[in-house]
Amino acid sequence: MTAIPIIQSDYPLRDHNTFGINAIAKRYVTITSAKMLLEVNVSSELAGLPRLVLGGGSNILLTGDFPGVVFHMCMKGIDIVGDDAEMTYVRAAAGENWHQLVRWTLARGLGGLENLSLIPGSVGAAPIQNIGAYGAELKDCFHSVTVLDLESGAVSTLDKTTCAFGYRDSIFKQALRERSVILDVSFALPKQWQPNLRYAELSQEVTARGLSDPSAVEISDAVMAIRTRKLPDPAVIGNAGSFFKNPVVPAQQRHALLERYPQLVSYPQADGSYKLAAGWLIDQCGWKGGSLGAAGVYEKQALVLVNRGGASGQDILTLARKIQDDALARFGVRIEPEPVFV
Ligand SMILES: Cc1cc2nc3c(=O)[nH]c(=O)nc-3n(C[C@H](O)[C@H](O)[C@H](O)COP(=O)(O)OP(=O)(O)OC[C@H]3O[C@@H](n4cnc5c(N)ncnc54)[C@H](O)[C@@H]3O)c2cc1C
Asked: What sequence ranges are listed for the domain FAD-binding PCMH-type (predicted)?
């Protein structure tokens, strides 16, 4: 039996975004099944209202009250749905917690997602920006998604190619933006698992733990330890992780910058361009640990903007724009925000 959707009014979102911004949603519905979403999406009470699909709220900036309906994705369920000679296939509902999915797979001897341990948020949001950390991205173990088209009500399956994953990017941030709701995500986890220790900091952590042949669980533990040391806990200080993406520039521009700034931190890309460390650029602009009113830049990591207490979405936005302007003026490089502005 499907639960009846309860449409709530003037709903406070403070506990549903990791920045802890106190914004109000005109309407709010907890979604516990695909059927419920299909039904409520066509409710006359919600006709004409903008939609916001919400997971854990760890990658959004609420810039003001939301004049529409929030669909809070809370459907649950994780299953092994098949296997073949090379892969085990796991499907997880959109409302599952991402990190709990990672540990669920590891507990069943299925490696592949361990480098992405402890990333906050929901399974359904993970493909939106192709979450990545410590040398891995969601797309490495992605198989397919089931999506609902909010306009037509059609449900379909999209494969990896269709999702057009890129660096913190996918079709869901482009052509399907504000249109598709991810209902569940399927993963292909390799039976012949190999550790991915390409990321220097992770490999050093593993070595420091005396692990010459680490298991997937041990890598997950190492990632969790690094992340806990480096990143602020949203339960303690509001934030959305990295606020800016690392900008990618042509080799010529990087060369010119290197002549002026020999300490510039950059990483070569497959196409000959370079990714610059946005945190370094922000640090050089003098913003690390700085504040503008109640909005601030985290002391240990300049990429992370924080709510020092009572900041509004506009306060965070003003700080972000100031940092962007300063980076552009100093380095001629535009740094783009990573969270979705609502
Ligand atoms: C401390 C901290 C560390 C972080 N570290 C990382 C990191 O290492 N790597 C990384 O990539 N990210 C990181 N993030 C960002 C964030 O955790 C991820 O982007 C995560 O996937 C967001 O999930 P969410 O459920 O909170 O999404 P939300 O913030 O709820 O939503 C984000 C976007 O996805 C859309 N969305 C959510 N669910 C669905 C759905 N089911 N269908 C369609 N659209 C949907 C929303 O509309 C919104 O546009 C970090 C955040 C924090 C706070």
From this structure: 21-192
Is residue 3 a part of any domain in this protein? no
CATH of the domain at 68: 3.30.43.10
pLDDT at 3 over 80: no
What tens digit of pLDDT does each residue of 228-261 get?
Answer: 999 999 999 999 999 999 999 999 999 999 999 9
Domain boundary among 73, 105, 124: 73
The answer on 309 and 210 residing in a single domain is: no
Integer Cα distance of 230 and 228 in angstroms = 6
N-terminal to C-terminal alpha carbon distance within the chain: 34
Tally of domains within the chain: 3
The answer to whether 338 is a known catalytic residue is yes
Query: Does residue 1 register a pLDDT over 70?
Result: no
| Per-residue pLDDT at 314 exceeds 90 | yes
pTM over 0.70: yes
Q: Encode pLDDT of 121-144 as tens digits.
A: 999 999 999 999 999 999 999 999
Q: Given ligand 1 and candidates 52, 128, 156, 179, which is best to mutate, with the most ligand atoms within 8 Å of its CB?
A: 128
Mean pLDDT of 51-62: 98
Whether residue 273 is contained in a domain is answered as: yes
Same domain, 94 and 191: yes
Ligand 1 pocket check for 231: Cβ under 6 Å: yes
Structural domain contains residue 2: no
Strands (E), the chain: 8-12, 24-31, 51-54, 60-61, 66-73, 78-83, 87-93, 132-133, 136-137, 142-149, 155-159, 180-190, 238-242, 248-249, 266-268, 274-276, 291-292, 295-297, 304-307, 340-341
Q: Is 131 in the pocket of ligand 1 (CB under 6 A)?
A: yes
Which of 48, 277, 92 has its CA nearest to residue 182? Answer: 92
Question: Is 240 close to ligand 1, i.e. is its CB under 6 Å away?
Answer: yes
Shared domain check, 204 and 337: no
